[in-house]
Amino acid sequence: MGRYSKLYAVEVAAVAAAYYGAAKLGLSLAFMAKSVTAVWPPTGIALAALVLWGYRLWPGVALGALLANSWTGVPFYAVLGITAGNTLEALLGTFLLRRAGFRPSLERVKDVIALVVLAGVVSTTVSASIGVTSLLLGGEIGADSFGTVWRTWWLGDMGGDVLIAPAILIAATHWPFKRAPGGRLEAAALALLLGGLCGVVFSQEVGLTYLLFPLLIFATLRFWQPGAAAASLLIASIAIPLTERDIGPFAGHSPDERLLLAQTFVGIACLTGLVLAAVITERKRAEDTVEYIAETLQESLLPARPPEIPGLETAVDFRPAGERHRVGGDFYDLFERDDGSWAVVIGDVCGKGARAAAVTGLARYTLRAAAVDESRPSRILDLLNNAILRQRAPDEYCTVAYARLELNGAEVARATVSCGGIRCRSCCAPTEPSSRSVASAPCSEWTRSQRWRTTSPNSRPATPWCFTRTG
User: Fold this and answer.
1) DSSP 95-114
2) What is the share, in percent, of the chain residues with pLDDT greater than 90?
3) What single string gives the DSSP state of each residue in 296-309?
4) What is the Cα–Cα distance from 248 to 209, expressed in whole angstroms?
5) Do 141 and 82 form a contact (C-beta atoms < 8 A)?
6) Could you give the angle at which helices 255-300 and 146-159 cross, rounded to 10 degrees?
7) pLDDT per residue as tens digits for the range 156-200
8) Residues 6+ apart with CB under 8 A from 279
9) Spacing of C-alpha 170 from chain mean position
């Protein structure tokens, strides 16, 4: 045997062993017939194995089913029929899920629904129909009990697909469980609290099962899919043994009936948690996508880093206000013109979001284009004003301060500053007291006849300049 063949044999044997062990557990709860039980975990194991590792592991499912049913005392041809039904059930469920674009991480609501409907409801009818028919032909059940046995078989298999399969799929796709916000100590405390409450609820005949849902929801909110699956398994591990002993809110019914009621409750609880977890992850994924787009768009509207200006030290502190996933309207720019002077721009676009980003892009690139042929700041702002009026809606406007810095050696720097828009006071000013009158400009909304007054002061060495925009 080659290395691949040996590995394949080990995988098939592992699936068969897991199926057989789970089947023996399920058959220990068989009451209606030797091969019929209301709790059948192997269905979930078989489905998860084929979904995760492919159709090629179907011999493991068939081998496990054959071994598990060979010791029940039913005729061998009935065992072969049951084995065929269990194997076809797993193959059909996997086929239907793959055709539906199923993702085993269960991070989408459509994946949870597909698992329940296509695998839990549809594919399990194959095993129930073939298996119960095989028992009927083998003389294990009567024709009058066919419907009751079929229902028990079908619901038992459905419980395996709804409860066991998600746990395996999530364990395989979410390991090492670091994405959810919950921590280890929190998980341990929650497990102890949920286990204790579940023990209390299922040890009394009073119907208090609804008390488990707040903890189940909290586990899902904090630990997402792993939390929902683990909480459901914990509830099942306590509820089913107590119910089998005729203890708890489902006591007083026949053995199969009370087990079906307990498993139905656990299945609904698991489904509730999985749907909630899928909604959470879908929303988180959408928020991450929007945040990434917003950050990328925001970065494209700002300089990557301040350039180095000979004789001057520059620094920028840009803190966008508002939510992280919304593009802000504030912008700045610092670039060198062809004549060796430097342009400093700071502005604020009305509003936030995509429309504000469009105006910001128009403003920034219009200013850069206008600075190629025009040196006067007031004229550059006039060109920007005309571009915004021509290309944007009337309610889209911005406030902009534009400064041209001319470096005359290491001793003197001349700044020509102009600004326009609304609320443009103190857009820029040197911090030295003797130069406070450096900028003056109109503060009304831009119009087609707007004019800007420009000042051009000189600054001495070590004079700090500050361009600010707040609000």
Assistant:
1) HHHHHTT--TT--SHHHHHH
2) 52
3) HHHHHTS-SSPPPB
4) 10
5) no
6) 30
7) 999 999 999 999 999 999 988 888 899 999 999 999 999 999 999
8) 109
9) 14
